[in-house]
Structure formats: structure tokens, C-alpha cells
Amino acid sequence: MTRKRLTQIVLVIVGLVNLAMIYFLYMDLRHSSWLLERKNEINPMFLSFFIPVGVFLLVAARRPSEHRSMIALVAWWNISHAVVMAIQTVEAWNHGVHRNFADVILFLVIGGVLLILLPTKREGGAQEVA
Known about the structure:
Layout: H1 3-19, H2 21-31, H3 33-36, H4 42-60, H5 68-94, H6 102-116, H7 125-129
């Protein structure tokens, strides 16, 4: 399997997972659970970021080398998200609230894999534009 093909497969999988967040967003908004149960409007807004990322990753999967910056953005977004969640998990433990690191590891793996599979820079890109 070529690196390009593997990159395309990973982009489709991560894109579909991100796009699937539309279900959770719909359920949050439909049942007003963000307001009535959690009393926190952050969850729907947070989920809304995943959906367009999923769409753009699916678009990038067709020609990954042409969407290098989008893939890098999503990779670093996942890594920074994992770092923030790691800090939150440690803080939760410090305050006696149990929270595991599974989601931290998941986001780190997604970001790391996307960075590893990041397509190389296209040669002559500036000449094509001119």
C-alpha cells in the first residue's frame, strides 16, 4: 500500500468520525440537554467545530498533497486539544474527580498519525500559480 493511499484512508476515517459528531450535536440541540442537564452551552459549540473539519478532511482525501496545510491544521488541532484535555484530567484528579486519559490518547494518536502521513511539499507550486 502506498503512502498516498494510506493517507487517503486515514483522512476518510478521521473525516467520517468528525462528521459523525453531527448526530451528537443534533441530540444536544434537539433535547436541550446542554441547557437542562449540563447547564453549559460549550458542548454544542464544541461539537460544531468537528463537523466542518470532517467535511474538509473528506475533500482533502481526494488529493492530499494539495491540502497539506488543512491536514497539518487538523493534526495540530488534535494535539493541542489532547494537551488541554490532559491538563484538565490531571486537575480533575487533583480535585478528586475521576477522569481517564482515553480521549487524550485518542486525540494524540490522531494528530500524530496525521503528522506522520502529512504529504511532502509539492515541487514547483509557486510556478504553477504564476
